[in-house]
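Re: [ENG-882] Designed sequences occasionally contain unexpected residues at chain ends

Forwarding the minimal case from QA. Structure tokens:
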């Protein structure tokens, strides 16, 4: 049904209703405010019931009608006559017609269940709509939104689906339900749930374990490590929760018993990210090449062209794609601007359908100059609400969190907050600021923070025990961190990188929680000029980073292939490393040539493609084809350079990475890291001398507090004025630096290059006839990623346990070093952790991963 046009009268009332509702939410700043007339509300509700009939999410126009109907319904409830049963019943009808049953359930919880309309036909209409959206077979009464119903039907009837929908639309929940149905119905089913970053693994793993436990599918393992079937044993049903890098490791493991029935790609729009997006596209192509019958599901935030993802992988003819434009939760976009000459006054505007409508000037209890983000969050957040402050880098998140905490006089009396604070003091450092912050219900959150800490902050925010979280761009990568309010100023996506419009609206969608709140607030603070306007045009596009590199930067790519830069980590050309690695891999594996494979390019570009093809043909390859086919990251010349070095060595003994527990491991890994620096990475620094010993201690399983102790002692040797007992800022800077060293350098950069190093070394050992030695090479890249060189610890982490909990659990119960994943899961299920001397948050993590409710 096409959306009905509205009248000038409705538009006037609609805007005044939204303004009045925001005024009512901020009584301390707008004490004198007009209320909508009852007859105006009655007229708006009457129009809204008709708009709701066409209020679907299948087009921008219909979604606009649905959004207006929803806005009128939820705002009318907040005024005088909203308390009458009739008004509430009309709102109930509107929510039913637009298929927003989670909001309708919230209305029932707030208003009671006696909302029946007098008209029997309207009551019948509502009952039918509810029945149509009822989800059966989940063991509980669950009524879905229209979008979720549409998505479930698409998943049931198609081998490939790509969907784009606003944040908070319930995509992940629907995909999990489909996964649950397949596991129940199929005799064997192995699925990969692909997430863009390690930060998301914990959240998805915990959700899946809970769902499986609730539906008596306790025997289905959920693994977050690239553990092969050979290592697990005979198993018919399994869910992997992996990043694209871990899936690449699984696929190139050589295990021929591996099978994959389905791949679910969460945050699939990340395929447009310059580097990791190329890894995602490459690993999916590899997966589908090996398992052509695998089902493929893409989930993206609101984007205009989800069909592109199916087309990239040749699934557009057999698959289905659609865009859902209607969000089940709405947001107030509130602009906050300075007033010249009045530093304690803010000009406030509400953005309605792209127009900035004045809310008036607000008198502030603080200066709107310099440091003000924390104050806005504190004074504009109600006692019962939670808020997220978006910061552009970790140091800024720390500072803003401290500003908010300074405004809170007393610590909160809450055992779970106390448990987290105690853990941070004991397991990180007694001066770690986060410990004092969480006692006041404040935290900072970014990707480098260890998994167990970051995950616990997320859980406590959802429970409203932590009320303020200052976070960075990790929030844009699918983290489930919804809050009532979001505060943002001139947002960036990482250091110095402008945020795209699609990312901004993804961020906006975190304000307000489905089935918990009708609406959220996004405060856009304009204390300074924003570098880029990201607030217009909600509908961004999905792009392939690989295709963009080929067709839009062809001349740069040609030059790169001819003359690679000194370092593969060059910011300007790191994209080209991965682009050409894939081009050369495709050339080796299938003879594919660019000039023949891409049709819609001009003659100049085709000539450049031919030049790249000629360079691929002319490249002098000495390494095995399989090694270069499986190279995801660098120009093949870099691997040949490394091979040449190994071939010149009279003995490769010192080049072989041994166990980090061996006596000379520090010297050995320093030598290996030096080789990588001089021949491959080429940062041009001596930093490997610090990173190699850190890597050894990390792989040995040293705790965070011991690693930090070493870093502090090193700082004292370098700077004799540094006093860790007094310099709180200095200690917290070192904590941030250590977390970045571990997450970005060891667990990403060196994981990538140690894998390449081992692959090349293995090939040269085989050349020399040292096949036995080649087969015994340790998977150091996995040891680096997991921070353990111990089978038991890695398998505990594969079940979803954090590194810290795995270390403490293994030590507390004195477990062997050779436990399988099944053994580890069995211990988690059986052992009584309540009596163990381990922190309370580790015990809580273990309880959440148990396959049987306790």
């Amino acid at each position: 049904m096409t959306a009905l046009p509205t009248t000038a009268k409705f538009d006037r009332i609609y805007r005044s209703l939204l303004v009045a509702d925001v005024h009512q939410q901020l009584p301390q700043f707008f004490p004198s405010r007009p209320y909508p007339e009852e007859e105006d509300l009655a007229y708006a509700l009457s129009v809204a019931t008709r708009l709701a009939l066409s209020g679907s999410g299948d087009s921008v126009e219909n979604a606009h009608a649905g959004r207006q109907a929803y806005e009128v319904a939820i705002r009318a409830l907040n005024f005088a006559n909203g308390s009458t049963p009739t008004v509430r019943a009309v709102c109930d009808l509107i929510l039913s017609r637009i298929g927003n049953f989670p909001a309708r359930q919230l209305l029932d919880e707030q208003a009671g269940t006696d909302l029946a309309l007098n008209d029997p036909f309207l009551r019948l209409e509502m009952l039918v709509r509810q029945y149509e959206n009822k989800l059966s077979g989940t063991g509980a009464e669950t009524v879905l939104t229209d979008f979720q119903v549409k998505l479930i039907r698409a998943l049931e009837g198609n081998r490939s689906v790509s969907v784009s929908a606003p944040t908070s639309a319930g995509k992940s929940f629907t995909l999990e339900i489909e996964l649950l149905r397949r596991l129940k119905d199929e005799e064997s089913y192995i699925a990969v749930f692909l997430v863009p970053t390690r930060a998301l693994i914990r959240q998805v793993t915990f959700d899946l374990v809970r769902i499986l436990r609730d539906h008596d599918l306790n025997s289905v393992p959920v693994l977050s490590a690239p553990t092969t079937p050979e290592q697990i044993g005979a198993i018919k049903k399994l869910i992997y929760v992996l990043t694209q890098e871990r899936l690449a490791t699984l696929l190139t493991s050589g295990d021929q018993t591996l099978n994959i029935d389905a791949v679910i790609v969460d945050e699939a729009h990340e395929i447009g990210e310059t580097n990791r997006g190329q890894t995602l596209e490459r690993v999916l192509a590899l997966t589908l090449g090996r398992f052509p019958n695998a089902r493929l599901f893409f989930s993206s935030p609101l984007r205009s062209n989800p069909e592109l993802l199916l087309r990239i992988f040749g699934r557009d003819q057999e698959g289905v794609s659609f865009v859902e434009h209607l969000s089940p939760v709405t947001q107030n976009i509130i602009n906050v601007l300075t007033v010249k000459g009045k530093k304690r006054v803010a000009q406030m505007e509400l953005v309605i359908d792209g127009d900035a409508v004045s809310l008036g000037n607000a008198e502030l209890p603080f200066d709107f100059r310099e440091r003000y983000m924390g104050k806005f969050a504190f004074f504009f957040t109600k006692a019962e609400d939670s808020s997220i402050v978006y910061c552009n880098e970790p140091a800024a998140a720390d500072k803003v969190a401290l500003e908010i905490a300074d405004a809170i006089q007393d610590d909160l009396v809450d055992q779970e907050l106390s448990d987290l604070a105690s853990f941070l003091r004991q397991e990180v450092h007694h001066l770690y600021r986060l410990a004092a912050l969480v006692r006041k219900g404040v935290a900072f959150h970014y990707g480098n923070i260890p998994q167990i800490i970051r995950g616990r902050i997320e859980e406590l925010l959802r429970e409203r025990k932590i009320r303020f979280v200052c976070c960075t761009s990790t929030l844009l990568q699918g983290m489930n961190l919804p809050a009532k309010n979001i505060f943002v100023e001139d947002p960036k996506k990482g250091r110095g990188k402008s945020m795209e419009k699609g990312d901004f609206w993804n961020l906006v969608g975190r304000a307000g929680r489905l089935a918990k709140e009708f609406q959220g607030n996004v405060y856009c603070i304009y204390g300074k000029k924003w570098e880029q306007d990201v607030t217009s045009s909600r509908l961004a596009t999905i792009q392939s980073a690989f295709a963009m590199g080929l067709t839009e930067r062809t001349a740069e790519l040609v030059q790169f292939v001819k003359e690679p830069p000194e370092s593969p980590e060059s910011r300007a050309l790191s994209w080209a490393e991965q682009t050409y690695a894939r081009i050369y891999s495709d050339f080796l594996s299938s003879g594919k040539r660019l000039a023949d494979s891409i049709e819609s390019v001009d003659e100049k570009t085709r000539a450049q493609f031919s030049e790249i093809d000629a360079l691929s043909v002319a490249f002098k390859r000495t390494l095995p084809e399989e090694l270069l086919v499986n190279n995801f990251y660098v120009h093949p010349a870099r691997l040949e350079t490394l091979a040449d070095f190994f071939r010149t060595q009279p003995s490769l003994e010192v080049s072989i990475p041994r166990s980090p527990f061996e006596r000379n491991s520090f010297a050995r890994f320093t030598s290996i890291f030096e080789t990588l620096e001089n021949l491959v990475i080429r940062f041009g620094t001596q930093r490997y001398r610090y990173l190699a010993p850190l890597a050894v201690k990390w792989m040995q399983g040293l705790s965070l507090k011991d690693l930090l102790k070493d870093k502090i002692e090193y700082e004292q040797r370098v700077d004799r004025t540094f006093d860790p007992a007094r310099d709180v800022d200095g200690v917290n800077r070192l904590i941030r630096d250590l977390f970045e060293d571990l997450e970005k350098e060891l667990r990403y950069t060196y994981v990538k290059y140690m894998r390449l190093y081992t692959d090349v070394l293995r090939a040269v050992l085989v050349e020399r006839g040292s096949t036995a030695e080649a087969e015994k090479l340790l998977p150091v890249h996995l040891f680096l990623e997991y921070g353990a060189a111990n089978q038991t610890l890695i398998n505990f982490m594969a079940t979803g346990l954090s590194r810290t909990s795995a270390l403490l659990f293994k030590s507390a119960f004195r477990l062997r070093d050779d436990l399988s994943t099944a053994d580890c899961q069995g211990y988690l299920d059986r052992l009584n952790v309540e009596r163990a001397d381990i922190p309370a948050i580790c015990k809580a993590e273990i309880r959440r991963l148990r396959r049987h409710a306790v």
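QA comment: On inspection the terminal residues look reasonable. The first strand starts at residue 134 and ends at 135. Proposing we downgrade this to a documentation issue.
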